[in-house]
Design brief:
single chain, about 210 residues, alpha+beta, 4 helices, about 20% strand
Length: about 210
Amino acid sequence: MRSRVLVVLLLLAATVAITPGTACACSCAPLKPAEQVKQATAVFTGTVVASHQVKGDPLGPNPPIVHTFRADQVYKGKAGAEYRVVTNADSAACGYAFAVGSRYLVFASDRKSGMFDPDPGVPLHTSLCDGNQSVRPGEGPLRAEDGPQDGEPLTAELLSALGTATRPRPAASRPPADASPTAPVSPWIYSGGAVLVLGLAYAGWRLLLRRRA
């Protein structure tokens, strides 16, 4: 009886040992700000205006989250007014926890990512190791005092690596789909209207003279 119990316990231990864990620790190699900028495809400051989690397998790992940023300053890449950036949902999987309504300095890349499936179809991704950090609310280029309210000021090394910022152009507003362009009014229409008014006035004047006669 004891031997059977021992065999069962050994089988359970082996099963636990070979089963991959659902969580892993995120380990980041220390990078200087210049290296973070170099590795990124887009570097910008912006406020998170929306976030949604990608639908995935309920039995699998947490699917990634797509964050939409309204950019105010762009330090690298195309100066777009809006960016969509994806990151893993868990910090253990190197996901960065962005909060809606907060402003961040974001380092995003379009290289091969370590995002969990399914693929959200968003080219830009970021992680806990890329150098992202929260900054004070605003819309101007970053200064030393724009570090997080409960943290240290931004370093001179970081500001030097970022360089000069570009202000993104506002998104052009599109006309409604059912709106048709207004055709210019021909000057002949105004001339014809004036002639018609004068003709009616002359006819009325002649009719008045005939009645008096």
